[in-house]
Write the structure tokens for this entry.
Amino acid sequence: MSGYGDRETSDTTTSGNYSEEGKKFREFLNSLPRANRMKDVEDYVTTSTFRTFSNRWNFTPEQDEKLPAQVSQPNRLNLPVSYTMSDISVKDFMRDAADLACRAIAQDKLGHHDVAVYFYRESISLLNRTRSELHRLQQEADEQHASVINERILSIETRTQEYQKRINDLEIISKRKLEEEIENSKKSGDELELERAKFLVSQALEEDESGNDDEAVKLYTEAVQLCLEAVRCKLRFKRDGKIDANMARQIESLAKQALDRAEVIKGVRGASISGNSNNASQTPEFSRMQASSGIDDDEDGSVSSIDPKKALVVSGKGGYTEDEKRVLLSTSRVNGVDYLPFMQVDLQEKFAFQLPFSDRNGLLALSPKQQKNFARWARPSEIWSNPRMFERIDCFSIKQTIVSDCSVVASLSISALYEKRFGKKLITPIIYPQNKSGVPVYNPCGKYLVKLNVNGVWRKVIIDDLLPVGKHGELLCSYSNNKGELWVSLLEKAYLKVMGGYDFPGSNSNIDLHALTGWIPERVSINGKESHSEFNKEKTFQKMHSRLHKGDVLITVATGEMTTQEEERTGLVSTHAYAVLDIQERLGVRLFLLKNPWSHVRWKGNYSELDVVHWTDEMKREFKYDPNSASMFDNGVFWIDYDSLIHFYDVIYMSWNPSLFSYTTCVHRTWDAGCGPVKDVYNIGENPQYRLEVKSQSSSAIWCVLSRHITELEDFKNNREYITLLVYDTDGKRVYYPHDPPPIIDGVRINSPHYLCKIILPSAVHKRYTLVVSQYEKMKTIHYTLRAYSSCPFSLQEIKNPYNPCYQMTLKSALNGHTMLVELRGPKIYDVGFDIMCSNVVDVKAPGFFTKKSSGPFRPGFVILECENLPSGVYNIIRQHSSQIVKGHLF
């Protein structure tokens, strides 16, 4: 063979014999009456075909020199999904098993061990299916033929054991090679100090140029200390012949320059340092703007790097109210860790340290599968000789391992493909530190900040670079096949830190992509069981096909529950997410290009690499696809037709680019469990309601996303809160009856953190709608964010309850000098407060007279107000309007 993957061979004799054997078998089979097929087929197979391959498979796993020098490529049979067990299945399985075994042996001989292992495993899978079918035939055969079949079964078991043993041997060889590579690539402690010194200097220069003198001096000083230590180390290396003196002089010069610059700053600017370093300390107000991860409109209508001048227009006030800030603060603590909103000042986060950074929150919890194979936590510099943040952004290099986060990896894959396909930044800008060009960089000091959209706003997540490593040096987290590339592992670690650790309960791509990109989540149920409308096959395809190629949407699909037999038959994985890489419609055929996050295990049905029926020469040319080449190695990428997709998959997850809209705003609120009835069967008058006013000059659309804040892993794992949005055409007035008038959009209550409601305006209109937040059962208090996107100007305002409870107290004495103490109590999880207003008093000149007095700032669960020297009269006690207040007894 001429090289890896080359299928040409000079062993034409064996190949020809096999082809003739197959032809003879089919002629023989067609000549048999149906009643005689079972017996005669088994006689033929066991005496001819299997024996032919048994002779060709004469291979001792422990001795590579016994591998055949050349291996022919027998003809393969297509195994469509609808294939059923029959008399011919034994012969077909054995023939394909032989085909795969030949490939395994050939790749084994060439030293392509990973490829060989794949083919050995596939051959074993088919041999096991052959054995199962032979067991069935054995039960139906007479005693004589049952004995012959049993011999064949034993022979298959022997062959299977040999292949499995060879797989084990090759895995050991591969792991040893990996361990050797890791050991050889490790850097010494002195080299790591040198890297950190260079990074300190680069960070000091950036702070210096930004005018942050205090921080610059500090970093210069730390850099000098590390540089001097590195110089001493390099001089030692020089004696060992490892590093030349020229490099040592460069580092010494770098230290001198850093020291000189620090002295200049101290001497020239002196006491003004502190005054000149306040640029980064000015924290802007929170904004209702869709905080971007680096996306916005470009001139061609696609998505590009963020340009503040082209940001979405915020409807209403830009700043948040005190109530909203309390909501965002209360949901900052997720799984016991605080994740504060990301603000401009966080761009000045310190990333350079003399010692490697370790996360103060500790190591992430490992999953049971990780614990079984875990050996140690390692930094990138201990795994690769040249770690870097990016080698190249490529969806095909991303690989999931034993962490059950397929949707996260699928989300990373389609985000990477988006950046590569459109040349626009989407997911990479959320990683810090970054260089002057805004490109994330490797930090030898080990600290990173990742910006994630969690619980209503973008929040900062601090992580270190410690990664879980297995007993044979393999990474136990998702990673990039590009050696030393870090971004995949770091983004996964940051996201899973928020989610409680690597022991991840699973998610979906709507949730993941919303956190990673801020794009608008839409869930489309294919089977229609969870949707208020039937699945529109044609409309959905046209929308996905058109929008995907414009860069307007990211798509994943997910399977439902499948039996082991269905998984084996189809090649699909139960309850598993797949990235949609491409959608094509050519020659009247609609195909989807999908990627399994595992980077192996592919679809076996129509238009798979096994399908020799549908992949005609014309189709191959049109799609530039060669099934034979694709079958040489399984990377988890496959074509599947649209009909098969909607048959075997349950859900389509689409995430839409916010730049499709021109206007946006949001509100953050709390809905108390005790407010209103438990169920919205008869009364929705006390549900949170909002007035949406739209002024459209032409056809337009308003999308509203209701997002429930989640702060505990158990809540995320077993989400029992079913939320939705109802839309009424009631001129923006409060609605009390759920079906009078009937809603124009009656949302289905789902237990997902995000619910999307689309309001389509076919023509120019000026209307006021009422949006009602609804739950299936109000069992617990929830915090939520309601964000609206619109292609036309609009306003979104909370509909206040005009009938706020008012308690009246009358002091009837003719004398002044009354004393009154008012207490308001409630569960401590709620912030409470009230106002007292003088309504009608006898003496306005009394020392204790006031028009209005407040209990002060909201307090958790308990607040009092003591008033002295009050004049006689009437006093109104009014509970303050706040979503934080629990309804109940006030005194």
